Amino acid sequence: MKTSIKSLDSHSFILTNPKIPLLLRIQHHRTKQNPFQTINNYVAGNFSFIYKNLSQIEQSKIQDLSDILFTHTFFCDTSPLWNLLFCVTVHGSDEFICPICLFKPVAPRIGKCGHFFCADCIRLLFEKSSKHICPVCYEPIFRNDIIRANLIYHPPLSTNCRFKKIWRFSKLNVCCSSTSQSTSSPNSPYELFRSLPKASNENSLFTHFSIVDDDFAFKIINQEIFDIDNQISEMITFNDSEKIQALQSVRQLIAEEKQFDDETEFQLIPQDSTFSGHFECFYQIEDGRLIFLDPLNVQMIEHSFGEDIWPDIIEGQIISQTHITIDENYDVPDLAFKHLHSGSEVTTILLDIDHLLKPETVAQFKNRINSIKQAEEKKKQEQLKAKSTDANKRVITSKDYQTFVPIVEPPITFSEEEFPSLSSLSQPIMRKPAPPIKIKEDFPSLDGNAQPISTKGVKKNWGGTASTTSQSSPIYQQQFPSLATSQPPQKKKKVAAAWGNLKL
Question: Which of 156, 210, 223, 256 is most buried when burial is the number of CB atoms within 10 A of its CB?
Answer without folding.
Answer: 210
